[in-house]
Design a protein that fits this description.
Blueprint lengths: L1 H28 L5 H5 L1 H9 L3 H26 L7 H20 L5 H8 L2 H12 L1
Helix pairs in contact: 1-4, 1-5, 4-5, 4-7, 5-7
């Protein structure tokens, strides 16, 4: 049981690290919102709605890489104690919850981006599981 929990924790840390690295690289090409915009929900929603498509595509690639890495890591670390797909699904579900919270905290994101993100987390963590087997 301890190894499964450790595998989940490490997989989530790796997944969030991958996501943050990709988003940091994205902020080099697209300026993040100013503190004034972040304080005003209406301005923030307008800023997010008018964001360039390539910025959202880069973030989506980060979600894809993070989900894959999380599924891969949790499978590699827990393969001696767990042979099923439950742990990669948990990683994907936790990442999906994080994505939903992101959409709530940063309103105005395009619907296509939110839909694409929601269908990537669990399937890509399962693809990471398949590569790790």
């Amino acid at each position: 049981m301890g190894r499964k929990i450790l595998a989940l924790v490490v997989a989530m840390i790796v997944a969030f690290a991958v996501m943050m690295i990709v988003e940091m690289l994205n902020s080099l090409q697209i300026a993040p919102p100013s503190a004034e915009i972040m304080k005003d929900p209406a301005k923030l929603a307008e800023y997010m709605a008018n964001g360039p498509v390539r910025a959202y595509v880069v973030v989506l690639v980060g979600y894809i890489l993070a989900s894959f890495a999380g599924g891969f890591i949790v499978t590699k670390m827990s393969r001696q104690v767990s042979t099923g797909v439950v742990l990669p699904i948990i990683v994907g579900a936790l990442l999906m919850i994080g994505g939903i919270l992101n959409f709530i905290m940063l309103p105005g994101q395009p619907v296509w981006f939110m839909a694409a993100a929601m269908v990537t987390f669990i399937p890509l963590s399962l693809i990471g599981y398949r590569f790790a087997r």
